[in-house]
Every structure is written in C-alpha cells, then in structure tokens.
Design brief:
Helix content is 36%, strand content 15%. The protein is of the alpha/beta class and 379 residues long. The structure holds pyridoxal-5'-phosphate (PLP). The site of pyridoxal-5'-phosphate (PLP) has 14 residues, from helix 3.
Length: 379
C-alpha cells in the first residue's frame, strides 16, 4: 500500500463516507425480514426519519439525486419544447435530467456572494422572456456546497408567471435558512446520498415536497408506474428508480447523526477560515444572513498565489485530495450550444477556487496538516 506523508500515512480524501456504527444493525434488520428489495418497512422508515429531521411534509426515496431531479421534471410536466432555467455553476447532474426530458436548458450565471443562481439576473430576464414568449416551465436552483438558496425569493419572482421552482438540494441535507431546511419554499426539492455527500446511503436520493400529489406521482413513476392492482397495469411509462431497502438501512443509521455531522463540517470550515482567512487574496464562501449551511465542502477562492490546478497537484503530492470548483456547464463540450445568460462570475470562480478536504471523520491532526500545507503553498 502506498504511504503518504500525512499524520496517519493515508491519503486525506475530499469527503469520504462517515459511518455512525448504527447502519449495520439496520442492514441486519433488512436481512432478518428478508426485505432485500426496493420496497418494505425500512424504506418507509428512512423516508419518515428524513421527514422528521427536515420537516418536509412528503418524500419518496429513490436510487440517486439525479433520479430525484428527473422525477421532479417529469412530474411538473416538463417535456420537449419546454425551457428550464438552471445555474451554470453546478455539477452536471443538475442539468442532465432536463436533457433526458427532451427540454431545453437555459444556463444562468451565479451570484458573486452566494455562488447560487443569480436571482437578480432571473428577476431581470423573466419579463423579457415573457415578452418574447419564451418563458421557462421550471427553474432549478442549486444549494451549492451546502449554501441554501433563497427559495422564498425565487418563488416570489417565479409565481406570477406560473413557473415551478425545483430546489437541487443534493449537497444541502442539514442546511437551514431562517430556521427552515434547505429546499423548503420551492415546489419540490431533490437530495443526494451519494458516497461523497454529507450523508450517504451508499448511493441514493430523495424527492421531497409539500405537494402530496406530486410526491405520490413520483413514487408511482419510480416503480415502473405500476398501478396498485394485483396484476401488472400501467397507465403511463415510468422508471426503475426506487431506493433499495439495503441503502435505506444505511441511511437510517446516517440520519441519526445528521446534526453531529453538520456541526463537525462547520467546525472544519471554521478551522480552515481561522488558519487561512487572513492570507492575502484568500476568500471563503460566506453564509448569507439567516443561513446555517452544512458546509458540505469548504470552498475558497485565491485572488493571488498559485493557479488552482497547480495547488491541487501540489496538495496531491502531500497526500491531500483537494478539487477545483465546479467547471461551469456553459464551458462543457457536452453542453455545447446551450443558451447562457452570463455575467462572468462563474468563470472567474472556476479560475481561482478550490475545495479542501471536509469529511466529518477528519481528525484534528489531519485538519491541521491540511491547513498547514495549504498555508505553506500560499506563501
Ligand atoms: C451530487 C449532486 C447531484 C446528483 O446526485 P447523485 O446522487 O450523484 O445522482 C445533483 N446535483 C448536485 C448539485 C450534486 O452535487
């Protein structure tokens, strides 16, 4: 095994899974009841536990965050000929489901303070789009790096036009804005429990909403749109998107420690900011007023000093996994030709930003090691 110059000799990863130790007993329960399937009491339990933790009224657990977003678009009737407005500064999974539905994405630049979709820009562009007869059917707003987007404001802007708002809260489980969970206030919200997210089911996602009809439709679609009759009856075509009970069991053990996990990620962020915040040109992503972000990943920008690619490579040599910020979607070959309403902010962030290891299982020694290495590379 390769040894690294880190405190434990192991590579320090960006955001590895962090088990609570309770997951195994839930997995054993699934085995004991033989519900090894995308059905059964463990799945219901995971959904209930999620609703309790977040105060969303309804939820369906699915195979991935991408599947949750796809179901959201499908349930809102987005299809060929429709436009969907979405941020450019995000992971491709925010945009891909728009294309799965044969709809047209229109990418928007991000706010320089929150890094989320630029709401001033949306507010400015909507009346113009209305005049030209090219209004979107839905707007997707991402809570980037755990930073909750102001869904109330976005909904207020979109509502007069009858546009639905989808929160891509994939990175934001446990984040709050004005005391309410991230994604509340949007028409529906998608979450991810992929291996690198704050909370993992080993791969999974969830769609939550206050709209019971929407969630129940998504549930049906996630199970091949089987109607509740004893034989195989389908009134529409669905997907095989339901979460498996084994993944849900892992999720039950994870949800029990959600509060602790968020608290630890916030501590990690604070540690980095204390250690590096006063260095020339360094800026951390600040929380908007009223927000309590989960700080999934600590993100910062460097106005001076090394190029982010060089910094990531130099940290890699020290056994540290850092990453550049999201490469904007309008710069991706896969999305060539997609419309883009730009201000230059996302390109600038991509040009000077990185994410540091932020896993909640990091020890103080590892944290100090990373902060020290970054510090020495910035001088
Ligand atoms: C992780 C992520 C997704 C997709 O979730 P998966 O569970 O990996 O499918 C969607 N949007 C954003 C912003 C993400 O970070």
């Amino acid at each position: 095994m390769t040894s690294y110059p880190t405190p434990t000799g192991e590579r320090i990863l960006l955001s590895p899974p962090h088990m609570s130790g309770r997951e195994r007993s839930y997995v054993d329960e699934v085995f004991a009841t033989n519900f090894v399937a995308p059905a059964g009491p463990m799945l219901a339990r995971f959904e209930e536990q999620f609703l309790e933790a977040t105060r969303f009224p309804h939820a369906v657990a699915v195979a991935s965050g991408t599947a949750a977003l796809h179901l959201a678009l499908r349930c809102l009737g987005v299809g060929p000929g429709d436009r969907v407005w979405a941020p450019t500064f995000t992971f491709i999974a925010s945009i891909a489901p728009i294309l799965y539905q044969g709809a047209e994405p229109v990418l928007f630049d991000c706010d320089p303070e929150t890094w989320n979709i630029d709401l001033d820009l949306i507010e400015e562009e909507l009346p113009k789009a209305a005049k030209s007869g090219v209004l979107p059917k839905a707007i997707i707003a991402v809570d980037l790096y755990g930073q909750p987007c102001d869904q109330d404001r976005l909904s207020r802007i979109a509502e007069p036009y009858g546009i639905a708002v989808i929160a891509d809260s994939a990175e934001s489980v446990g984040s709050l804005l004005n005391g309410r969970h991230a994604g509340i206030g949007a028409t529906c919200a998608a979450f991810s429990f992929n291996g690198n997210k704050l909370l993992t089911t080993g791969g999974g996602g969830l769609l939550a909403s206050s709209d019971k009809t929407l969630v129940e439709h998504a549930r049906t679609l996630s199970q091949q749109a089987r109607m509740p009759v004893p034989h195989y009856e389908h009134e529409e075509v669905g997907y095989n998107y339901r979460m498996s009970a084994l993944n849900a069991a892992v999720g039950c053990g994870q949800l029990e420690v959600l509060g602790e996990r968020v608290a630890r990620r916030r501590e990690i962020f604070d540690h980095y900011r204390r250690a590096l915040g006063n260095m020339p040109g360094v800026r951390f992503l600040e929380e908007p007023q009223g927000a309590r972000a989960n700080r999934w990943l600590t993100a910062l920008t460097l106005e001076e000093g090394p190029e982010p690619t060089l910094l990531v490579e130099a940290l890699d040599r020290e056994g540290i996994e850092a990453r550049r910020l999201w490469k904007p979607m309008h710069m991706q070959k896969a999305l060539k030709g997609v419309s883009f309403v730009g201000t230059g902010v996302s390109e600038k962030l991509f040009g000077c930003g990185i994410c540091l290891p932020s896993g909640s299982s990091m020890s103080e020694a590892q944290l100090e090691y990373v902060a020290g290495k970054v510090q020495s590379l910035l001088i």
